[in-house]
Structure formats: structure tokens, C-alpha cells
Amino acid sequence: MRREKLVDHLTQLAIWACLGVALVLVLLTVTAYRASAQWSSDPANPMTVCNAPNQQRSMRAIADADSGWYVFWSDARNNAAKADLYGQHFDSEGNALWTANGELLLSDPARSINILEPLLLPDGSVMMAYGTHAQINFMDTIRAIRFDGDGSALWPTSSILLTGLDYRSMKVVPSDSCLYLVAYCESCGGGGYGYRMQRVRMDGTVQFPTIGQPASGYWGSFSVHPDGVGGVLFNVRCGNGAGTCLKAQRFDSLGTAVWPADIDLADAQGLNYAFATASDPEGTITAVWEVNGDLRMRRIDTTSTSLWSPGVLPACDLPTYVQAQPAIMTMGTELFVAYYDNRPPANNADLYMQKFGLATGTALWAADGVPTIQESSYIPTPRIVASDSGAVIGIMDMTGPHKFCAQRVRNDGSMAWPAPVSFSTGPQPFYGDRVELSDGSGGVVAFWETAPGDLYGARIHRNGLLYDEVDVTEHSSINTIKAYPNPATDRITLSVGNERVIRAEVVDGIGRLHHMDLDGASLDVRALAQGIHQVRLVCASGRVLRGSFIKQ
User: What is the DSSP secondary structure assignment for residue 54, as one 8-state letter?
Assistant: First the structure.
């Protein structure tokens, strides 16, 4: 049954003119409105994010600046032929801070808001890139708007980033307190496919013409990472079919290619279809891709120089069986790879994982990886997020009894939980339409779309439970700490009282774990990337202190 919708009588409407198109920006008051939603402890009935009429789609989720999460989506509840932008803000306990079933954030009377990509900025605000069209299934203009933590618009009008082409998808990354956007388009110069770039500043002004800066003439899937100095590292599959290339190029803050020519990350055999990339604070890029049922990998620096010898190494090349759909992340000096594998006793495919030394590409766990989730599955999409203490959490959907589930893998490759833990045995993600994020305390949160177009969320705590029962063998209490100055540029001081801290861990905005040295109550944060970071301090008393801070 759908929940009764709540009417927020505090909502105000303000209408501005934007390039001749009337936009309705719904400004939220700063009143502490809280809807009645929380994380569910029953996997058969996960927390409902939105089950409004018609379809909710293009769901995206990001961490906020204070141990919670934003969820945004394109919503056709008011008109099946024209979608609006809706969102929800959750605190760490899963309490919905905005109107139940989502808050209307942006509506255009003449155009449908069809896809979106949010980015948390260093000051805690959210910049939202979104694609619009007169029809609900297309996109000819990409705009941006910036919201504060209450969902109030910080610009009087939205900013046009790209226009005049047939856009299909986009990705955004931070770029010196700006948003760097790369969009995939059809009829993208010369009538073919390609990619266009744009850079938008905190005040909504754009750096390049609205036709965008050309990035590539290829037309496969792509990834984008910040290079740490205002530019981006761009990776793209050269097309469909086996044996295609995997190109890479670095662009500076002016949109200019840094390398003399694109480089091919793959070897002579190319790649079959799926690939994954990850970056680290030094700006290096690691790529893992499928080829003929195996997984291969390569790591390059910001000058495009290969960092391993030989340049391309096997990630898993078990004969006869198929390894595919890699998901990867770097954490400190280690690379983690999750993938599906059909080796026996798999009923279709199981989830396997491997850890590599980032410096050399040497496998550090059992040969050919460790089995992580072994249940019957159908077209699974592996994922991976950082936990704590050097552990990671592997995730797979479309599985057997546990269905959409996760397993925490310790740094030595052993399983931390007796069995996979279910986000949901009820409403399931529609293939890969889901987002998983580190919860900053060793666990994981997930938000997902179902086939009918409803949205759900769940949290698995570090102890492998859907509720926060603190593991007394590890700590007896958890307390929130303050960090100052916040934002910080070089050092932050943490309010630890009389506690003696024995371990300090920081999880950055994309889930990478950093083991930190604590000097008294102070952390040196100069090596961290700009953005929101979660900090966790384990004390000699057994208490765990946690909080968040912004690195400028």
C-alpha cells in the first residue's frame, strides 16, 4: 500500500524567468521538519524513500556534510509525460528530514527533468546538473542549480551548461570548488556520437561556450575522475563489440588535452564490454576490464606513464571460466576488485574479490580471488565500498535467498559476517539502478529503484545487522565529535576530551579509507582531497568517536 502523502504547509513557491522559460523553484524553510521514515530492521520491508504515483527514476544518492545522505530523482507523479526534480534528506538514523515521499525541488512547466547528477561542494551545498527536454525520454539541454542543506535554491535561476545537442548521459566531478561535467551526446559534431565538457563555478557561471568543449569522438561507456589540480582524467570505451579499445586522456581546467594523444589502456586484445576505473589522491588512474572471459588491469600516472611492469597485468585469468563486470576501488596503498565469476559451484555467477598491492599490482589474497557471496544469481552487478580497519564490503544484487545483499571482507581476505546480509529480500533493484555508500562507521547504506519505479533504502551496520547493536567486543559506546576549524585547509582539531585515541580513520567522499596519524587531538589533512570527510576515532577505553569535516 502507498503511504498517505503529507502536506507541508510551510512550503513557499517562488517563480523566476530563466531564458524565457518559467521555472518553479520550491524553497524549503529552515524549519526542522522530519518525516516518519527510518531504516528498517526487516529486510522483507525495507525503508520506503518514495512510492508516489507514476515513475521515479534517475535516482542518485550522495553523502551530506554531517553523517547523512541526500537522495534525488526525476519524478513523474504530477504528470506522466513530464518529470520534476524531487529529493529527500536522511540523517544517519534514516529519519527523513524533508516532506514524506520527497520534496519538490524544481519544476519547469514546459520541460521535463529527465536525468540528474548531484555533487556535494566543499561548503556543504549541493550543485545539481540536470538534463531537460520537452519530452520525458530525451535530453537536449543540460542545466545546473545549487541548493543549500535545506534544499533552498542558492541561485535565482538555473544555469545553462550545454545546449543544442542530443545528450544521452553525463557525469560530474569536483574541480577546484567547481563542477566539471562530461556529457555523452549524439549528433555531437560532424553528425556522429561524442562527448562534450563544461565547467561551472560556484556562482553558476560557466567557463566554456554552451556548445561545450569537445572531449572525444568515441561513443562507448565512459568514466571521469578529478586529477587533483582542477582538471579531469577521462576514460572511454571506443564502441561495442569484442576487441575495442579503452582510451584515456587528461584535460586541464581550460578543457585542453594535456597528453599529446589519447592512450589505449588495454593491450592488443582490447576489451569485450565492461570496465571500471578508480583514482587516488596522487591523480593516478587504475583500470580493470573484461577480455575473453578474463580480467586485466593497468595503472597510469598523470603523465600517462604505466606504473606497473609489464604495463598490463591479469586481475583474474582463471582458465575455462568467466570473470566479468568488475567494480574497483583504491584505499591507501591497496587496490580492491570485485567481480562476478561462474566457476563451480556457481549457479550462474558468484561474487569474488581480490586485493592487490597498488605499487606493483601483486595479488595479496588467494590465487584467483576469494569467494564472497555464493548464491544462485542472474545478471548480477557487483559493487564495492570501503569499510574500516582496512576492510571492504562487497555487494551483489539478483542473488538467491539473500537477494540484494552484502558481505564485509576483512583486510586479510576472510569474511567478517557468518553469511551475506540482505539489504532487501522484498523490493529488489532493477538491475544496476542503485547506489551504495560507506556509512562512515564501517557499514554501508544503499538506495535503489525497483522495476515499477519506487525507491527504497537500507543500512547494514558494521556488525552485519540492520540495526545499530554495538559490538561490545570492539567498543562499548559511540559518540559524535566536533571538528574545528571546519572547513579546514591544513589541520583540524577534534573534541576527544580525556580519551586516548589509538586509531584514527578518515573516509573521503568517494569511499576511500585513509589511516591517519593523530597528533594529540589534531589531524594533518593537507594530503586529503577537497570535500566532505567522515572521521572515526577508536579510543583505548573502547569508545568510538565519529564526526565529519570539510577539507577546502
Answer: S
